[in-house]
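Hi team, as promised in this morning's meeting, here are the two structures we talked about. I've kept the exact order from the run log so nobody has to guess. The first one is mostly here for context; it's the second one we should focus on when we meet again. Sequence first, then the predicted structure tokens.
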Amino acid sequence: MKMRLLFAPLALLASMLLPAAGFAEDWESLFDGKTLKNWDGNPDFWRVEDGCITGQTTPENPTKGNTFLIYRGGDVGEFELTLDYKIVGGNSGIQYRSFEVPDNKWVIGGYQADIDSGDTYSGINYGERFRGILANRGQKTVIQEDHKPKVLEQFAESADLQKHVKKDDWNSYRIVSKGFTFTHYINGVKMSECTDEDAEMRRNAGLLALQLHAGPPMTVQFKNIKIRKLAPAATSSVEKKHVLLLAGRRSHGFGAHDHTSGCHLLAKLLNESGLPIEASVHELEKDGWPAAEKLASADTIVIYADGGGGHPFNSHLEELQGLTEKGAGIVCIHYGVETVTGPPGDAFLKWTGGFFEPHYSVNPHWTANYKSFPKHPITTGVEPFEINDEWYYHMRFREGMEGVTPLLTDLPPATTLVQVDDEGKPILVEENGQKTYKLSRPENAHNNNPHARKAVLEDKTPQHMAWAVENANGQRGFGCSGGHVHWNWGHDQFRKLFLNAIVWTAGLDVPAGGVSPGAVTVDDLLQHHDEPIPEDFNKARIAAMIAQWNSK
């Protein structure tokens, strides 16, 4: 027995020196050593000190429950992560492929690489709010369909492994997440290995976070946090979904209706989400309507283009109907929700549940304030937000809203239709002996109409700016009237809603906490523009606006 324990760590260390299969070439640093950029946590407990992410509780400032510092730069799926940590008192951990707990800010559940100031838990795999201990130290386990771990091998004794962990000092942690096998190493020594075959509960992607545990006062520090993505495991049973984003022609000038740039940004974020999804962009102005084979391969089709009588879908209704009958999702963004009555409008009602109908719907610019959301996969993890856009409203929906779930709802201000007095009341004028509203916008196919005025000014009916349907054959559709202002894609909550919608319409489950919106900068928003960037473009103003949005 003594001989086996003596040589076990050496064998483990040797195994660490073998090249790992499927690694990407580039490492990415997740912490700049100075700020908590891309990290989100309670500022009462988290800060940067001495070039380290520092989490601390004290007798005067305890946390009532476990609290987490969440990485907002993108979800993780298949990866290798390394970092250095030091813990004094208490325990902590590194969450990965994890989810946010609804209605609990900065609370995370999922796989956790444990960190402990004691002698027992450093290196184990713990399912925080997620089935409990999945692999103790020194164990190789498999999680079965009953949600419980089965020990396949006790490859080392816990007490022996503890000798490789430094107390109150810096240690290195390495996590390898490949397929559904998760291996933890501390200071180059394998601590635990877990393979998750629990198809009902296992997670293929999710958030990365750092834990600060409730209980006695403690301090934990992290530095040198680096990650590199791995090639998907060949044995993965999760089939990728294909998202096809159709970018419409140039329209409205720089900074508005930037279809190509918007589509490329959404595709990039989807491909970096860690979800089993493959997104591609097809530029309609440059390449024309996509080939039948390309369309047929799509699990969901996203249209971000000018609509109305010239909507790209109008001349391909039969082809699209055939695809939706086979379950293909449809997502319509901004002007892409507008078509004409008759067969096109009827098709939109089938596919997404609603559309912008000329002389019935209106298209003013105004600031909508979305204070709450219905429970729906698309609203998962989306926090209340307020943003100015060309929010079309008074959509033509299915009769009785049959099967339609409104997602973004607000009562537009009267000024979107009429002029108001100093008290905000609509101004009435006399025309041909009758009292009528003094319009702020003239009546035409888009600007104003008596139907919208009655709904908003007289009935005060809240309007729906985003909605979703799921049809009997499983086909899913989503429409949202926002998306005129290109810079709004820099708003995390606005962007997350669309990412959730695309993932959901593709037939995937939206992860707990929603699809990670990533971290989008002005430089990201300037990629793939179909209009030249003006010389007087104020990049700093847009950057400040994005920072203000996402700091709330």
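And here is the second protein, the one for discussion:
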Amino acid sequence: MSQFELDEAKARQLEEKFDAEIRFRPLAPLGGWIVGTALVVLSIFHYWTAGFGLLPELTHRGVHLAFVLGLVFLVFPAFRMRDVAATDVLHPLGIPVWDWALFALAIVAVLHVPMIPLDDLAFRVGNPSETDVWLGAALVVLLLEGTRRTTGWPLPVIAIAFMAYAIWGRSMPGIFVHPGATVPQLVNHLYLTTQGIYGVPLGVVATYVFHFVLFGVFATRIGLGQLFLDCAAWVAGRYAGGPAKVSIFGSALFGMISGSSVANAVTVGSLTIPMMVRLGYKKHFAAAVESTASTGGQITPPIMGAAAFLMIEFLNLPYTTIILAAIVPAFMHFLGVFTQVHFEAKRDGLRGLSPEEMPDIKAAFARDWPTIIPLIGLLYMLFSGYTPYLAAFTGITLCFLVGLLNPKRRMSPVEIFDGLRDGAKYALAVGVASATVGVVIGVVTLTGVGFKISFIVTSSALDFAQSVTAWLPTWIMGVKTLTLLFTLILTAIVCIIMGCGIPTTATYIIMVTVAAPALGLLGVEPIVAHFFVFYYGVLADITPPVAIAAYAAAGMAGADPFKTGNTAFRLALGKALVPFVFVFSPSMLLVVKDFSWSEMALATAGCIAGIVFLSAAFSRWFLTTTRPWERLLLAVSSLLLIAPEPWSSLVGLALVAPVTANQWRRVRIERRAAMV
């Protein structure tokens, strides 16, 4: 019998345990029913508007944020607290009275702006009333508190720092000085315009992200996630280190519909991590494999994650273009994890799954083949040119139909209610974070600090490049190339630091606003710059000191979190290097303006070879156990092969040739010794 039977109830419990963004407060039965009904109404609102027409822009965003921010105060506790009795007068229905007050204030503050007639609003921008200022200030404070409850302190601290910069601009040093803004002026810009709280990030979550989160919930509930796991086990389970490879394939497939690193890690990891440990993998390595593979869910088409939908708005490109651009880099990420897992398994002699442990793929398809229909419908709508939210509406509708009509796995009305409730709950954290990021963007547009940072970064990189080229031959790398390289390194470091404890979506938006202009000044195409910061924002999920996906997997495995994070980062080096490749060889993204098949082929082939050799160097195994000098040559050759230049590829191949020859000679000797 297959060991890959997914226990959805257990997976949801693990998600709430390890993912702070869905760590909800316990409620009294009546309180749970009231809050659950409000969450279902929020889901129905988005489902209905996706299929039958969105409300006017400001109204739609206002209704969405009013629900989301208000419900955050009912669903998330301010601090860890004990359970309370439903009869407690200070905690009616299990919710403190002050949270009920914040819930009401949030709704009033959010809906105040959409309720102002557009003609009146046009005259009040720049001349806010006293009511506007007080409610706007209240909304900013509520957003900071709501974000702290859902994602922690990092993002609120960043937003506060940006607002302080806006107010005390006259006191800033050097290039950062600006005229400054009064509190009413800042509130006016953040509250009454669409360049702040009600800006693009909130709009994208309200019109795209929420719908795909809801689709992912229902696709999993009808059994698509189970089918993906069965397929992954059937494809990869029988080979060396089987459960680890199942983890990679399963996380890639499951991530297509979840778009969440932590949800991916705990759902797939609840099955694969115990099996990896049982097979002989060390606990920290098993957790690292799962967390690294799970971060691939946010970069794997067709759903990818919230940041992909933000690209649509920022770049004004169709979603199909974003999907096509993501294909090759996503493949490189999973290739890097797969090769290291394979080499580790070969080195330690780890077996694959026995026939008894493998799933019956025919029985799996006979039971769950209807669950593929919603995904096919969603992809058809996306590639036919329909809007992403209409595609999500189609996918959700098909999930309802399959869930109600499939006799092998039928959904009850209660399960549909639970799906609508949980889909809204999972979208609360990203919803409130997107509005808080709007505060940061509002300050950037008000003060112009983004261009100032870009100028400082590019100037510093240029000075460093000029000093290096003074002794480096120009035929190796010119000043322009070195300037771009150093700018990319600085941007990558900032992305990883910013991503510590901040949701990927928020990291992406901030870095696109602050760092992407620097890459644009150096001639990098917008879609390439956006993918670069997107990839490094995702990488932060497994980069210590705050690697949320790695720590979640470590908790499940009983492993050391920091050791797990370090190993996960090592496994994800393919993802860390690939963004540099597609910046210097944009054709790898397939949809750039000056696409070249020869450039794409050279970059892709070199990247594949480089990732394989780098994996061999880290795993201490290639064709057989590697020696120190072989690992050194493999590591150097991998970097030369990944660099998208013909001369570097030739040098890399020359360096790896003696390693391959020596490895092959030793394999033949070992085989002869084994025969004797």
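Starting points for discussion:
The longest helix spans residues 413-447.
Residues 30 and 537 are 40 Å apart (CA to CA).
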